[in-house]
Amino acid sequence: MSARTLVITGASSGVGRALSERAVRAGYDVLAVARRGALLGELATELVGAAGGIATLTLDLRAPNAAATIVRGALARFGRIDVIVNNAGAVAAGPIAEQSDAALHEQYVVHAVAPLALVREALPELRSHRGHVFFIGSGVARIPVAGLGAYPSAKAAIRSAARIARVELRADSIAVTYVDPGAIATGFMRRGGFVGPPGHLTVSPETVAQHILRALGTRQATVNAVPWQTAAVALGELLPAATDALLARFPQLVGGDRLAIPSEDQAEPPNTQNTSAPEEPARSPVEVALLPLDNRMRRLNMHVEFVTGLLEPGASLDAGEVALRWAGMPNKNERALAREVLAALAAAGLLREIGDGRYEVPAR
Q: Cα separation of 202 and 186, whole Å?
């Protein structure tokens, strides 16, 4: 029997990438679709030799006939389609009443029109294999947050559409699952110009991906990756006036603070924490090198573990590549931090500058 085939949009980063990795390693075949071809190529390289197969398709979901192109690509590579995971996302920050036609169009197409078009084009395959469709939602579908443009209303549209599709496709034995992922620890909000939710309230993309994989077996109608957050959203939905007032006063609860963009030459204050205190664990050489950037790294959600993972002996690094691997679509602030991190590692002897802004990790 052929392996089940998943089509995953928005597969170059975040939940889409995490799900693609886990699905292929679990033996599924995956067509990974996204706009960023370089990141898809990295994903495919990482999965060479895994239990399942992977094919990639670099495509903008707003392109004419994008849905038909995806279906043709999946059938050409794997011969079947069993599961569609509509994960791709787009946000254009700002007041919804001031959004351009292009910004409104992108958000509604990516979140509502394109997912439904993909289901329509894949319908014969989904019927043949008792297929499964996932729509990735958001808490803002139920509690709209000001300043996120049309993103909340587009997510509300697909939440409603998922419920309708579930009823209509039941007779065809096609499962439809709406996923409320909770606040995810990705760069999505930062790329929209916001700080993003506090770290202690976020869930990892890997955790959400695991919930989705589990739902392939249970075929449940709804996946709540963070149940307590879903419950809090439901309560807020019952008290709209109080919730709006609370979020207006404390936007940081949902990551709605605007991202400050300091000048690239603005120095970060050093971390003055007493590192010699007996209860303080020993710091690694990487942590010591990055201490002057600690505050900035915390604010922009760059983790020491990510930086440490870059230091493969013999690897060649530059700031642009590092920023791309970390943030996906880096802004000016993220690119500047990537440059400063590499410079700090070089100053500590952990990297060797080889010219043209590139660095080499010394062999051990």
A: 9
